[in-house]
Amino acid sequence: MNVAFQRHRMRRNLLLEGSPLTVIWCEESGGFVDEPTGATISGTRTVLSGTLHGFVQEEPARSVVRQFGEIQTGDLIVDVLPDAEVSLFEGQTQSGTVALTALDEPRFALHGRQYSQAKVGGELDALWDATLGGEKMERTLLLRRAT
Description:
The chain is mainly beta. Helix content is about 15%, strand content about 40%. It has one domain (about 5-145).
């Protein structure tokens, strides 16, 4: 099986048929870290946002997937590429794309609802990420409704 061809097809399908999620994160620059508190002092904090395409499923009240304790009703299960990139919105201090893995504590929005990424246990993590020919084809995120 041609892994590069399959990855190309998945990337194309995500862009054409995947749901656009808004990703919001903060970047800090300058300043220094206050040792006792761990807070950054005199730095600049910039809020950035962009779009990430993924295949999204909202977890219903009853489901076979709920056999794993970390999944709750209303959670989103989102499949993205292993090297998923967020396309920045126009009019910000930065432009282009940024790797999802490079973002520190991103938040997500879909249909006016806010979500944050939830931790997944090792057993579920091992089951979720699809591989083909030993290469990761997708990465699954568990998003929990922000309160």
